[in-house]
Amino acid sequence: MSLTRKQIRQKLMEPVNKGVHFKFPGGMSRRGKLLDRVVVWSGHAPDADYWDVIDLIEFPEHRHRRWIRLGYYRQVGDRLRWAGQTTITEPIHVMRRLFRQAAREKGWFREVLERR
Predict the structure, then answer these.
(1) Considering the domain boundaries, does residue 106 fall inside one?
(2) For residue 14, what are the CA distances in angstroms to 18, 37, 38, 47, 91?
(3) What mean pLDDT is reported for the chain?
(4) Which residues make Cβ contacts (< 8 Å) with residue 1, sequence separation at least 6?
(5) Residue 99 lies inside a defined structural domain of this protein
(6) Is 12 exposed, middle or buried (0-12, 13-18, 19+ CB in 10 A)?
(7) Residue 114 located in a structural domain
(8) Could you give the number of structural domains in the chain?
(9) Which of 50, 57, 74, 82 is deepest in the core (most CB within 10 A)?
């Protein structure tokens, strides 16, 4: 069976409203809930297809409850595997600061955000 892109998107949305668990170097961990996700097909390579995701995660016990994670999946055949073992996951205010600074300092990044 070969999944359509629509079916793959649906499958990648299945974790929404489910738990997430992060383990950090040094033994620290954090549990939260995946509140929402954006899924974008990013391209084809000879051995796999790639799907990028932007996740909104809530960590109820943390001072900054809502975080954004940028990650991706690797698809070989109909099999999808989380490939973003090392991701950027930051509270929304930190991600906002990162994007604002990049847009201020780098015209190429500002163009990414402004171009329609």
Answers:
(1) no
(2) 8, 10, 12, 25, 23
(3) 93
(4) 78
(5) no
(6) buried
(7) no
(8) 1
(9) 57
Identify the three-state secondary structure at position 8.
helix
CB 83 within 8 A of CB 72: yes
* Rounded Cα distance, 110 and 39, in Å: 22
The boundaries of the domain holding residue 61 are: 5-91
Residue count of the chain:
116
pLDDT digit string (tens) for 55-100? 999 999 999 999 999 999 999 998 999 997 778 899 999 999 999 9
Burial classification of residue 19, based on how many CB atoms lie within 10 Å of its CB (0-12 exposed, 13-18 middle, 19 or more buried):
exposed
Q: Which helix (H) or strand (E) holds 39?
A: strand 29-45
Q: With both helix axes pointing from N to C terminus, report the angle between 107-114 and 92-105 in degrees, rounded to the nearest 10.
A: 120
Residue 110: both structure tokens together = 């500002």
**91 three-class SS:** strand
Cite the DSSP H helix spans in the chain: 5-13, 92-105, 107-114
Q: Is residue 14 part of a domain?
A: yes
What percent of the residues of the chain are helix, what percent strand, and what percent coil, each to the nearest 5? 25, 45, 30
